[in-house]
From TrEMBL:
Protein name as catalogued: carnosine N-methyltransferase
EC numbers for this chain: 2.1.1.22
Source organism (scientific name): Portunus trituberculatus
GO molecular function: carnosine N-methyltransferase activity
Highest taxon in the source lineage: Eukaryota
Keywords attached to this entry: Methyltransferase, S-adenosyl-L-methionine, Transferase
GO biological-process terms attached to the record: carnosine metabolic process; methylation
Entry's Gene Ontology cellular component terms: cytosol; nucleus
Family to which this protein belongs: Belongs to the carnosine N-methyltransferase family.
Amino acid sequence: MLVSDIEKVQSTIRQIVRDWSPSGAHERSQCYGPIINKIEQLFPQDRVCAEEVNILVPGAGLGRLAYELAKRGYTCQGNEFSLFMLFASNFVLNKCRGLNTLRVYPWVHAGSNLLTNGDQLRPATFPDTNPSDLHRQAQFTMAAGDFLEVLH
Ligand SMILES: C[S@@+](CC[C@H](N)C(=O)[O-])C[C@H]1O[C@@H](n2cnc3c(N)ncnc32)[C@H](O)[C@@H]1O
């Protein structure tokens, strides 16, 4: 395995924490919150048919934003070209069951920004929501590939 691949695995694990663990909640609300609020302001679910609002999330990473939009009734497609991200998002979205049933140690490879050994060994659980709880009619897909090539 290449060093760059190992770094991608490490960053994918940290991304799991940001997108799908309880400890990522604050960061999610800061970065996804304003986008979700704006969409709900532009297309309020009580005034539009949310299903008819098509939303594309290019570079969707592990898919949390796209998932949140689909959960709110919008037709949403996430797009991503990194196989590391696609493998991990497929795992979380399609295979994980139950709340916080899995655990990662996202900082175990970190050598900086650590005040104590405990910081390095701090675990994070996921998923903080059950992705399979999306209602049956939810319109949520992920498109794999380069944004500039697969979406026409
Ligand atoms: C900075 S990350 C952000 C991921 C996610 N939106 C988030 O907020 O966590 C950018 C993502 O875009 C993806 N990406 C970059 N260029 C892309 C392209 N041309 N087509 C599809 N995905 C792309 C990368 O693989 C990466 O996962």
